[in-house]
Design goal:
By secondary structure, this protein is an alpha+beta fold. The chain has 8 helices and 7 strands. Strands 3-2-1-4-7-6-5 form a 7-stranded mixed sheet, with helices on both faces. The chain starts with a helix and ends in a 26-residue tail after the last helix. It binds zinc ion.
Length: 261
């Protein structure tokens, strides 16, 4: 049970980080698969990520419905998570958000969103664009049932990120830390690409070899990965909530403290 508590605590931290880093605002969500039951996952009830506490986390099945009695409202778009977990047994954590910097790349077909900066390598070489209208015609553009979720998951395929035309993105990864990192750097990569386009001329994307080299030897608790998680958590005011499963040292000084040293 201690492990589950820690996981849910990490999910709360992940929500706060995504809010602080402007990946989500009032909308957008992150989930994590149940470690002992791959047919269940955890996600908040319908609430802005910045405000989420442990008690707001609910457990859903792969049909997107709560597994226990739940009177509180749930996210309309929880089917994005359910369908990706259903289709991708390798995926442990999912983010859906509407970060503005990625939106142009789901709208304009001329320039694909791909890694152009080293920290953007985690999004993977190809980022498919899903257009809800192709199969579902005129909708409110939100993913509000399993059919739509599955169509999105199919478009995502084996990739890490899919853009959703006129709406946002969905990202999937092997751990909470990894999906947060990917979702934080995705809009930054998009910004760099957009600015490079403004300078004009040919765009030089990261090569497959460079992307592979960046991803080689990935570990969620490597010094480099942990450093970012610890930094973001402290910046988001939840450094005191950090725990490290490998027993390593944790810095807990939430951001109000003096950083002049
Ligand atoms: Zn959405």
């Amino acid at each position: 049970m201690a492990n589950l508590d820690t996981l849910i605590q990490d999910l709360v931290i992940a929500n706060r980080i995504l809010a602080k880093e402007d990946v989500v605002d009032a909308y957008g969500h992150i989930s994590v698969r149940h470690p002992d039951n791959p047919k269940h996952f955890f996600i908040s009830r319908s609430l802005a990520p910045e405000l989420i506490e442990k008690d707001d986390i609910v457990e859903l099945g792969l049909d997107g419905q709560p597994v226990k009695d739940e009177k509180r409202s749930l996210y309309l778009e929880r089917f994005i998570h359910a369908a990706i977990y259903e289709m991708r047994p390798d995926v442990t954590a999912v983010v859906h958000a509407h970060a503005e910097d990625i939106l142009p790349f789901g709208i304009a077909k001329a320039t694909p969103l791909r890694p152009v900066i080293h920290s953007g390598s985690f999004i993977g070489k190809d980022v498919p664009v899903w257009d809800i209208a192709e199969k579902f015609g005129d909708t409110n553009v939100l993913v509000t049932n399993m059919d739509q979720g599955r169509d999105l998951a199919k478009c995502l395929g084996g990739n890490n990120v899919a853009l959703m035309r006129g709406h946002g993105f969905a990202s999937a990864a092997r751990s909470l830390i990894e999906v947060v990192r990917m979702s934080v750097y995705l809009p930054r990569n998009a910004r760099a690409l957009m600015r490079a386009k403004m300078l004009g001329g040919e765009i030089k994307y990261l090569s497959q070899g460079e992307i592979d080299a960046r991803n080689a030897g990935y570990s969620p608790y490597s010094t480099e990965t942990w450093r970012a998680w610890e930094y973001w958590a402290n910046k988001a005011g939840c450094g005191h909530m950090l725990t490290r499963p490998d027993g390593g040292h944790v810095h807990k000084h939430d951001h109000k403290h003096d950083h002049k040293k």
